[in-house]
Amino acid sequence: MAAIVLCVGNRNGRFAAKVLMSSSKGARRSVNSHMSLFSEPPINTVVSPVGAGLYCRGAGVRFASRLAGGRTADARFKRNTLVAAGAAIVAGFVSGFSHFQKAEMASRIAKDKEESEILEKCKGFMSAPVTDVEVLQQRKGEMSSRMEMLIMETQAAFCQAIEEVDGNKFKVDRWQRKEGGGGISCVLQNGKVFEKAGVNVSVVYGNLTEEAAKQMRSRGKVLKGKDGKLPFCAMGVSSVIHPHNPHIPTVHFNYRYFEIEEADGSKQWWFGGGTDLTPVYIDQDDAVHFHGTLKEACDKHHAQYYPDFKKWCDKYFYIRHRGETRGIGGIFFDDLDQPSQEEAFSFVKSCADTVVPCYLPIVHKHLNASFSAEQKEWQQVRRGRYVEFNLVYDRGVKFGLATPGSRIESILMSLPLTARWEYMHEPPKGSQEAEMLEVLRNPKDWV
């Protein structure tokens, strides 16, 4: 039973209340409560059963309540009376509301902190993200938003490291795709150290073309569209760096995320990517450092990742018509959708975090190395092989060229500024060039 409370008067600006009934075994007890919420209440307050509500009346309102034993209590209240217990309830309500406010404030502070962190991160990017920042904040828990933030961070970190070495700035080129999405291409050409350096971010969406869908089905993807349409969202960061100096290797990395919505509304998702090195001259220490850094990142997640993805890389970056690999490899993986989306994303993040430490120490090591005209010519021949692979075999280039609205300049950004094709070129036996070719024809384990 709820308590029935009646006001008994105003004592020098403090209010008293008498509890006529309580829920304690029907016992009647009186309690005087003194509170100083208001010195002169403007209205009378009548409290019905405690907890049921607080009701305000004008002067002269009669309050009636059925008491124990069926008795009814009538009381006429004067203008200066107030139910003190009502004040107590107000105090309790205020206290409870205060706790609610604190909880709400804590939640708001946490939300504001998360939003401010996103805004702070955006300040360090090469450009504003492809997706509007407010949308990223609203969808910050979704994988597409988290992946977009990661690729923007990766682009910024790598570009800034390259700029510090070269002394020149990237040209930042934002572009939009009328079918949906867009990208940010950062390109540095004819720098002091780098002949051509490109770091691209793209976030595109729309419907897969039949040709693009065929490529995915050839990889074992079972895709069920609706009315012939397959809505997709794809995003990634991709980079290729071509230095002037033949002793500084070319490096490539790409990390991407893909989502496809099927006819029943369910989504298929997967990650892909990798990092690989293409030197012109073999350097054992460089190879060990590069592969060791990647192996360390892989080992944090699964002991089998590095050996499996290293073999996959050697197999993928293979120029079949030449019978040689494009470079000394690294790691490569695709269609990664296990063991969970969270763990797959965590692994991709670990890999993306290596792009600076696995490459920049090698750049600094050979920064001032001298080279001959013959060595420069060999570099140009090897770049010709790089072009052959990208145009004939690279899956990303093929997908981009098959997707309506794709930006050709960004897709072909990976090609070097200069290259060379010599008829029937074969390096002299026993030369450094021949040693390099032997490694490309017979990939080896470096760590």
Features of the shown structure:
12 helices, disordered N terminus, oxygen-dependent coproporphyrinogen oxidase, alpha+beta, 2 domains, 7-stranded antiparallel sheet, 447 residues, single chain
Q: How would you briefly describe this protein structure?
A:
By secondary structure, this protein is an alpha+beta fold.
Question: Could you describe the 3D structure shown?
Answer:
This protein is an alpha+beta fold and 447 residues long. It has two domains: 4-91, no CATH class; 132-441, 3-Layer(aba) Sandwich (oxygen-dependent coproporphyrinogen oxidase). It is 37% helix and 25% strand. The strands form five sheets. The chain has a seven-stranded antiparallel sheet. Strands 1-2 form a two-stranded antiparallel sheet. Strands 3-4 form a two-stranded antiparallel sheet. The longest helix is centred in the N-terminal third of the chain and has 40 residues, at 84-123. It is globular and about 85 Å long. The model is unreliable at 1-79 (pLDDT under 50). Keywords: Heme biosynthesis, Membrane, Oxidoreductase, Porphyrin biosynthesis, Transmembrane, Transmembrane helix. Pathway: Porphyrin-containing compound metabolism; protoporphyrin-IX biosynthesis; protoporphyrinogen-IX from coproporphyrinogen-III (O2 route): step 1/1. Its EC number is 1.3.3.3. Belongs to the aerobic coproporphyrinogen-III oxidase family. This is Oxygen-dependent coproporphyrinogen-III oxidase, mitochondrial.
Any chance you could write out the topology, listing elements then pairs?
Elements: E1 4-11, E2 14-21, E3 44-47, E4 54-57, E5 62-66, E6 72-76, H1 84-123, H2 133-138, H3 143-166, E7 171-176, E8 181-189, E9 194-207, H4 210-217, E10 231-243, E11 250-261, E12 267-278, H5 284-299, H6 305-316, E13 318-319, E14 324-325, E15 329-336, H7 341-352, H8 360-365, H9 373-392, H10 395-402, H11 408-411, H12 432-441
Antiparallel strand pairs: 1-2, 3-4, 5-6, 7-8, 8-9, 9-10, 10-11, 11-12, 12-15, 13-14
